[in-house]
């Protein structure tokens, strides 16, 4: 987590400059730094003296197809889908890597811009045609809206709300589960998507009962984090369950679930792998282990 207690992907510091999106040139005629994101959501990286840094392409103007991200310290930023290269504007690229690999190690500015860039470009990839007529949409507002050319209907970037919840027994134990596709020994807190017509709190209760058969109380919001894989917003909660209830795993979603103590999580024994630091699951688990929830 950040020094001020935020999840690592919730630390954006740039100005999204939303009003500038309405202008013919949102950069105001200034040179713009452009980030290339490839089809695998990887970006060019250079190892700096204090860790990895994104390699930005300095352009005299906003290139065709780029999405305006905003500005920081008077410098406009944008992102565009493109191919990998060994250099960017004459600067060497040490590697191409994704947000999961880099997010915890990037500085605040790069981390916030990268999460935004991936999310908005993924939306464009998945919504190139109008859901009303099937016509190819036109992109407007510097990449932040699409329009059906036959009906004039505007479409805006969508974000899918998902809940992620730490379920504890009111004492020293927490329920963790694992999916079959995860690396061996990986366990995490439970999660699921909010359904239409459902509150986030109702989704927490429903998902926990569906996945592990537990009824919960004391549902409380903790924090949130963008998760652009491809377009989720993770809403973090904590809740309580009576430990005398039987855990009944839904095999279509969870391979295994059980109670863990704080000591088990503090001293990994080689059989348990907690989520990586970039995830909100790890952020919430760390808070619980330190008794700060």
Q: Which features would summarize this protein structure in a list?
A:
single chain; 293 residues; alpha+beta; Nucleoside Triphosphate Pyrophosphohydrolase; six-stranded mixed β-sheet; four-stranded mixed β-sheet; 18 strands; 17% helix; globular
Which helices and strands, and how do they pair?
Elements: E1 32-37, E2 43-48, E3 51-54, E4 57-59, E5 67-72, E6 75-81, E7 87-88, E8 91-92, E9 95-97, H1 99-102, H2 108-126, E10 138-140, E11 145-147, E12 154-155, E13 160-168, E14 173-178, E15 190-193, H3 200-212, E16 216-227, E17 232-241, E18 256-261, H4 262-266, H5 280-289
Explained architecture:
17% of the residues lie in helices and 32% in strands. The protein has helices at 99-102, 108-126, 200-212, 262-266, 280-289; strands spanning 32-37, 43-48, 51-54, 57-59, 67-72, 75-81, 87-88, 91-92, 95-97, 138-140, 145-147, 154-155, 160-168, 173-178, 190-193, 216-227, 232-241, 256-261. The protein folds into three domains: 8-126, Alpha-Beta Complex (Nucleoside Triphosphate Pyrophosphohydrolase); 132-157, no CATH class; 160-289, Nucleoside Triphosphate Pyrophosphohydrolase, CATH 3.90.79.10. Strands 13, 14, 15, 16, 17 and 18 form a six-stranded mixed beta sheet that branches. The protein has 293 residues and is α+β, with helices and mostly antiparallel strands. The longest helix has 19 residues, at 108-126.
């Amino acid at each position: 987590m950040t020094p001020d207690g935020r999840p690592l992907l919730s630390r954006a510091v740039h100005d999204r400059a939303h009003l500038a999106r309405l202008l013919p040139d949102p950069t105001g005629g200034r040179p713009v730094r452009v980030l290339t994101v490839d089809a695998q959501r990887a970006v060019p990286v250079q190892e700096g003296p204090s860790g990895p840094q994104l390699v930005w392409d300095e352009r005299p103007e906003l290139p065709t197809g780029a999405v305006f991200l905003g500005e920081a310290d008077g410098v406009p930023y944008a992102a565009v889908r493109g191919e990998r290269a060994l250099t960017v504007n004459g600067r060497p690229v040490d590697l191409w890597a994704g947000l999961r690999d880099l997010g915890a190690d990037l500085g605040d500015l790069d981390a916030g811009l990268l999460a935004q860039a991936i999310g908005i470009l993924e939306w464009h990839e998945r919504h190139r045609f109008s859901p009303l007529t099937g016509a190819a949409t036109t992109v407007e507002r510097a990449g932040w809206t699409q329009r059906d050319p036959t009906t004039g209907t505007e479409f805006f970037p969508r974000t899918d709300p998902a809940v992620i919840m730490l379920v504890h027994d009111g004492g020293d134990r927490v329920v963790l589960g694992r999916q079959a596709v995860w690396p061996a020994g990986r366990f995490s807190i439970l999660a699921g998507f909010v359904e239409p017509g459902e509150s986030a709190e109702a989704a927490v209760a429903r998902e926990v009962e569906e996945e592990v058969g537990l009824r919960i109380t004391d549902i409380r919001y903790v924090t949130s984090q963008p998760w652009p894989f491809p377009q989720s917003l993770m809403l973090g909660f904590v809740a309580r369950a009576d430990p005398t209830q039987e855990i009944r795993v839904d095999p279509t979603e969870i391979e295994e679930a059980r109670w863990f103590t704080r000591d088990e999580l503090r001293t990994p024994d080689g059989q348990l792998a907690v989520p990586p630091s970039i995830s909100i699951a790890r952020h919430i688990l760390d808070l619980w282990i330190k008794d700060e929830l």
